[in-house]
Specification:
With 154 residues, the protein is an alpha+beta fold. It has a single domain (4-151), classed as Nonspecific Lipid-transfer Protein, Chain A (2-Layer Sandwich), CATH 3.30.1050.10. It is built from seven helices and five strands. The protein has helices at residues 4-14, 25-38, 44-49, 97-105, 109-118, 129-139, 142-151; strands at 54-60, 66-74, 77-83, 91-96, 122-126. A five-stranded mixed beta sheet has the order 3-2-1-4-5. α1 packs across α2 (25-38), α1 (4-14) crosses α4 and α1 packs parallel to α7. The longest helix is centred in the N-terminal third of the chain and has 14 residues, at 25-38. The protein is globular.
Length: 154
């Protein structure tokens, strides 16, 4: 469960598309807008986690390609979305498109995430000592988990 909270950010960002659709860069951009609208109501632990980070998202798509997106955050708000790799990421998210869809569509996204993580379909890792600490702290926060589930409409 240690990467759970951040994957909800990812799922919220990707959930902007119809679940049956393939995930595209534009869906992530729209999801970021949705996330940023709710960011002011995010728990303090989440704002700390996403304070000033560079996040690399790598999604293995059903047809065999990989969608790579970079997110840059400042003060807990996503300020830049980049198609392709981001330089010097502090957090790296790897997920399959199918796993993200299952998390989003699930009545219990926490359990769906845990199942996908156990199968190795979703992983999140900090690339620096500080990022690893932030991720661990945020993931232990029940308010952060509730906030993300709310973004998913759960």
């Amino acid at each position: 469960m240690k990467e759970l909270a951040f994957i909800f950010v990812l799922a919220a960002a990707l959930a902007a598309t119809a679940p049956a659709s393939a995930i595209a860069f534009e869906d992530i951009q729209h999801g970021v807008e949705v996330y940023n609208l709710g960011a002011e109501n995010a728990p303090d632990i989440l704002k700390t986690l996403l304070g000033d980070e560079r996040v690399q998202i790598e999604i293995s798509k059903s047809e065999g390609t990989v969608l790579m997106v970079g997110l840059e955050t400042k003060g807990g708000v996503v300020v830049n979305t980049t198609k392709g790799e981001i330089e010097d990421p502090t957090i790296v998210v790897n997920a399959t498109e199918d796993a993200i869809t299952r998390v989003f569509e699930s009545g219990d996204p926490v359990a769906a995430f845990q199942e996908a993580q156990a199968r190795g379909e979703i992983s999140v890792r900090g690339t620096t000592f500080t990022a690893r600490l932030k991720v661990s702290a945020a993931l232990a926060s029940t308010p952060a988990l509730r906030f993300f589930a709310g973004l998913l409409g759960k």
